[in-house]
Amino acid sequence: xxxxxxxxxxxxxxxTYKVGRTPFGERITYVIKxxxxxxxxxxxxxxxxxxxxxxxGESGLAQLDVRKVLETDDGAIIDLRYNGxxxxxxxxTAKLDAGFETAFGETxxxxxxxxxxxxxxxxxxxxTLAAGEARETPGGVVYALFAIMQTxxxxxxSS
Length: 159
Description:
Layout lengths: L1 E21 L2 E14 L4 E4 L4 E6 L4 E12 L4 E11 L2 H8 L11 E8 L12 E9 L2 E11 L9
Antiparallel strand pairs: 1-2, 1-9, 2-3, 2-4, 3-5, 4-5, 5-6, 6-7, 7-8, 8-9
């Protein structure tokens, strides 16, 4: 049986580039700006230079394709990649344009994430899949990620 455990929260700024309408949908590229992350077993900063190569369909539903580089407080480098769904809405856009933040769940903003690192202190992240949600701020995003954990069967238990 699967269950979720808090893994980390993180936030970073973004710089937006509207590529425009393509044969595949509207392409928007968000360049990742510096940020921070923290969780029960890991914390540090998000480095400049990652990105989200978002593709928006006719219905306003967008596919996220994100890559970020994390650096832990003790110097480990971690590659974070996630895909997800985001639904654009006029109400959320108006709220952000007025300088307000959104709340978790105010619009569909869900991700599935994986990690890779060569640092043995964080090897466990190589075997971790995560799911999460996000909310927007006028200058960026805030995410909450949860590790997808498998409950171990008790010895001698049969189904």
